[in-house]
Amino acid sequence: MRRLLAAATAVLLVVTGCGGSGDEAGDGKTLKLWHYEGPDSAMGVAWAAAIEEFKATHPGVEVRFEEKGFEQVQKTAPMVLNSADAPDVMEYNKGNATAGLLARQGLLTDLSAEVAQRGWDKELGAGIDTTARYDERGVMGSGKWYGVPNYAEYVTVYYNKTLFDRQGLAVPTTLDELTAAMAKFVAAGITPLAVGGAEYPAHQLFYQLALTEADRDWVDRYQRYTGEVDFHDNTWVHGAETFAKWLREGYLGKDSAGMKAEDMGQAFIRGEYPLMVTGSWWYGRVRAQVQGFEWGTFPWFGMTAGSSGNLWVVPKGAKNKELAYDFIDITMSQAVQDKLRDAGGVPVASGATPAADPRTEQLNADFRELTAGDRLAFYPDWPAPGFYDVQVSAVQKLITGDLGPHEVLTELGDYYRENRSGTDR
């Protein structure tokens, strides 16, 4: 939602550095930078600090920063990157259908040598570098480095501790315990789960339920095309039937079909629901806006939707690539990574000093545990272009009762086979 909000509110900003009037011919006096993080987001705060550090260490260089909308970049990147207007460094979405596609089209610089020389690969844990490397087909997980992630994100569970305490409930550590807690809330006349079904994250919850029965091989076959994918195997069926059961039991309301992610998040923030399953990107807003009750987060059980955050990429036609590499290096520095963490983000380079806020430290500790256990499962819509809309629509129909769980799986499976990017191994 953070990225979608950025798309709706994108503005153009220009940040001018010390000395020099800039240069478009590539003489090392201008760094043209694009990203689509809101200025108050953890990433926006961190990248602003990185710009200031870059200016301090590169006197005479002008930084031309343009804040772009997420959708704006997605729609125009292939055209812009193939023109004289390409930036030197830009934020771009990760995955086969985005960064992988641009890499396959020859629009991105191969960063492999720079990654090795500057040691960026040593900062990234298991599953984080997957989204930075693409083979000749544009399929993630192997091949050359075409991007560098500077933060991470994952789906977690936000809970209203005050409401849990009133029901005498402890933090769930298993899916069965979560189910029992939700049943107790329903018995007390409370709908437990805030869910956005008009867009994300209902389809992510659907995927999360499947992931409770998944392993790395299952994820790789689905996400990286390493083998056959059966949308009616035990894993997918478990996810679909459990989601349908949760609907029948009243754990989420049928009115959630019309609820957008923003409405969902605000309802949780107002204290109307005891639980919300969504991304770490909501953490900063929850921390800043919740009043009147205690809250916290706890991790999902088993494999979890998540990955690196978006990538810094260097267009093939960038005029000042060395400056771009220097800027990326600054965003990987411990000072900037710590600033990102303290603003409510999840850095890829963990420092020795824990976060001052215990909830922020918990958010990051849970992520470190996910990476240590190789439990990041990426996002459900990544394997095929346009899959996001298909998944949102199918799960929305499941919520309204227009489709049954097995019909949803058939719809998803048909689209996956026809549209997934890349080719079979």
UniProtKB/TrEMBL annotation:
<dbReference type="InterPro" id="IPR050490">
    <property type="entry name" value="Bact_solute-bd_prot1"/>
</dbReference>
<dbReference type="Pfam" id="PF01547">
    <property type="entry name" value="SBP_bac_1"/>
</dbReference>
<protein>
    <submittedName>
        <fullName>Extracellular solute-binding protein</fullName>
    </submittedName>
</protein>
<dbReference type="InterPro" id="IPR006059">
    <property type="entry name" value="SBP"/>
</dbReference>
